[in-house]
What we know:
7-stranded mixed β-sheet, 0% helix, single chain
Amino acid sequence: QVQLVESGGGLVQAGGSMTVSCAASGPTGTRSAMGWFRQAPGKEREFVAAIAWSGRQTYADSVKGRFTISRDNAKNTMYLQMNSLKPEDTAVYYCALTPTYLSSTSYSQDNEYRYWGQGTQVTVSS
Length: 126
C-alpha cells in the first residue's frame, strides 16, 4: 500500500549539484526510517544515506561531506542534496522506507527497509 516515487534525476556535469526527491504515499506511519541507495552499471547496490524519524543521519564514506539527506515529515518527502558530483556518482538512485519506532539504528543496510521506489537515473558527465 505504501508507494515511493523518486524524482529530480537527470544529467549534470562533474562538480555540479543536483537534488533528488522521494515522495511517499499510503500508510507510512508516524515513525519511519528513510534511506537512499544507488546502483551503478556492473556494480552492486550500495548504501548512500539514511535518516530516521528523529532526524538522525547516516552517510556512506564516499558521499560524506558532499551529500545531505533531509526529510519533511509533514509532507512525507525525503530529499538528497548532492554537491560536488563526480562521474563515479552516476547510478540509479533508489529511495526506501521502513516503519519503525527506533531511532538508534543507522539503517544502512538494504534488508532493513520494507518499501522501495523504482529509482531515478543520475548521470554525471566528465
